[in-house]
Amino acid sequence: MSNKLKPLIIGDLEIKIPIIQGGMGVKVSTASLASAVTNCGGAGTIASVGLAYGVDETDLNFVKVSREALQREIHQAKKLTQGVIGVNVMVALSNYEDLVRTAAKEKADFIISGAGLPLSLPEYTKETSAKLIPIVSSARAAEIILKTWKRRYNRLPDAIIVEGPMAGGHLGFKLEDLKQHKADSLEKLMVDVLRIAEGYKGGQDVNIPIIAAGGIFDGKDVAKFLKLGARGVQMATRFVATFECSVPDKFKELYIAAKEEDVVIIDSPVGMPGRAIKTEFIDRVMHGEKIPFTCSYRCLRSCDPKTVPYCIARALCNAVIGDLDNAVIFAGSNVARVKKIVSVKELMDDIVNEAIEELSKI
To answer: Which residues sit opposite 264 in a β-bridge?
Structure first.
């Protein structure tokens, strides 16, 4: 692959093509997809959430089976690639600390953490080489993390991902702001976070790369955010409709068939809004139906099975086993532009070539 883009440098990591494949749970971005992206010069991300779903739910040792499932995925990815592999761990998970410690122990190159403020992330990764990358959706969140990490641990993030309101999955914005299109654009958020990160240099040679995410679809988008000062981008939705993504064809075909009006904002039991493709299940939930369930473990800190309207974990798991009528299928705002299933290499080539062409117009 011809590449004239500047590599994304995160500490001593060099990502030749400045594209990070975003973490997608449950079991959407696993070793197969992550390693394929890495082998094309980008950085692959394994989503730690839900890797153990589908095991016997009478086994109450949820923490143990989740840890073992993450270990298997990291080991498998490292067999398939020599490149940069990371893990995404949601702050909202009840076993957050254990998964972070596991990712660091298994020598994940980086740990991305969002769905809450990862204020204690450095505590769980001491004496490891893992690069720490929080996800923020506001300048205020970035400043809180920077200030807290500096005060508690005398360190700063190795990079920061700024995720805008057009992303898929769980979103760090108010539900009403998303529905009424009042949330700040990714462009504004990124410039604001860049300014705050610059203030933490303090005259020292401190480099905190800012990575843009949320609604980035093609090479033109990549070029636009590189021009604005991002060192790289994170993309997720585009990688679902690839041969290497391990979800069933029915899942990928739903992406290809999706129209703009099929994309909706839901209120997730995680305690955050989320962007998804409308399914029969989502239609029922949006009309106020409660889907009863029993739970042998609490995978989310905020979840009370007696009060939440449905189990988000089970709904996401249903998606990857092909039970789409009972599933939540997350997707970014541009999913309607996905038209066919391609290889990761073809996708990466197209994005990179278009980005290079766009940047050459400067």
So the answer is: 276
